Recover the amino acids of this structure.
């Protein structure tokens, strides 16, 4: 029941900034943000990612500086992604299990310098395989159970290096249960799992694959394990299974084309729900901004509030530091 015009004037509360603030149904703070960072080998290096203006791969010392910046801005958590040198990539992705690989070294260095920032480690084999697939490949087929066995070991190695949240992004069946079991057996029952539960086979990951160097090498696509963009009921089943297997939180990815999925998951399940504003979404906004077709600050904030309004508890976004600065003003 609502009064009609002229008793009700919807514009009345919109007249002043203070009133608009008071009436806002959704809020966003830096605490809602997780900042994904790309890593590269070397010292004092920052390699721009061409398809992601404003984003660079950072050497570990620079990633430590980024962690300090995140802490100062009130961003609670970083997500780390390594660009593994070509000579360390192999068919089986063995480098994923190296306790001294790039991401593990970076986590130790960051934990040393900024102990109270959260670290999320992505679990999947694509940054380490010569073929760019997230799992082991045999005769063109991505093997499920043998891949899960390796991901379980990868998760333990990352937990040993200081990961607070293990985030399997591989979409193999049964990986959450396997990783939970492996972590618990290794004494890491306190380490969380954020499952990329509804991860779609998306065109919007292109710039990310440039950033981690897996795009050029990727043969074929990922449609036998990532989800069909046409499906939402299937996403709910994925989430339900990941919760049953022991996920502490779930993620929907990409973000903007899948807001209905975020809403449906939020309404149906009582679990922290995250959304990933992926590299292609970042690139789209930046490309338009570079042509003066969009205004950067308001495009960032509007895209992020949309995720919160759809029901997300938090957002992984390459805009995290800019957004945190805007929100502080
Ligand atoms: C790897 C992974 C991908 C992303 C996060 N982890 C790419 C892919 O599945 O091909 C994409 C993130 C982004 O596009 O920003 N398993």
């Amino acid at each position: 029941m609502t009064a009609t015009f002229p008793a009700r004037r919807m514009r009345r509360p919109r007249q002043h900034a203070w009133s608009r603030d008071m009436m806002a149904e959704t809020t966003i703070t830096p605490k809602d943000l997780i900042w994904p960072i790309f890593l590269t080998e070397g010292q004092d290096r920052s390699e721009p990612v061409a398809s992601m203006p404003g984003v660079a791969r950072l050497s570990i010392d620079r990633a430590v500086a980024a962690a300090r910046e995140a802490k100062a801005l009130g961003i609670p958590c970083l997500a780390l992604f390594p660009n593994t040198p070509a000579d360390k990539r192999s068919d089986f992705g063995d480098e994923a299990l190296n306790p001294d690989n790039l991401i593990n070294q970076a986590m130790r260095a960051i934990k040393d310098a900024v102990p109270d920032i959260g670290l999320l480690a992505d679990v999947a084999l694509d940054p380490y395989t010569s073929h760019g697939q997230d799992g082991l490949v045999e005769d063109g087929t991505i093997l499920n159970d043998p891949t899960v066995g390796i991901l379980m070991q990868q998760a333990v190695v990352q937990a040993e290096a200081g990961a607070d949240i293990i985030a399997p992004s591989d979409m193999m069946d049964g990986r959450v249960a396997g990783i939970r079991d492996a972590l618990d057996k290794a004494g890491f029952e306190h380490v969380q799992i954020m499952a990329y539960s509804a991860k779609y086979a998306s065109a919007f990951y292109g710039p990310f694959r440039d950033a981690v160097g897996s795009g050029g090498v990727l043969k074929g696509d990922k449609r036998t394990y990532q989800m069909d963009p046409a499906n939402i009921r299937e996403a709910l089943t994925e989430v339900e299974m990941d919760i049953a297997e022991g996920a502490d939180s779930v993620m929907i990815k990409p973000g903007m084309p899948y807001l209905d999925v975020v809403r449906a998951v939020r309404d149906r399940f009582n679990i922290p729900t995250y959304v990933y504003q992926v590299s292609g979404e970042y690139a789209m906004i930046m490309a338009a901004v570079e042509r003066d077709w969009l205004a950067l600050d308001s495009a960032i904030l509007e895209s992020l509030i949309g995720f919160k309004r759809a029901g997300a508890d938090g957002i992984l976004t390459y805009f995290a530091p800019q957004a945190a600065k805007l929100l502080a003003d």
The chain has one domain: 26-328.
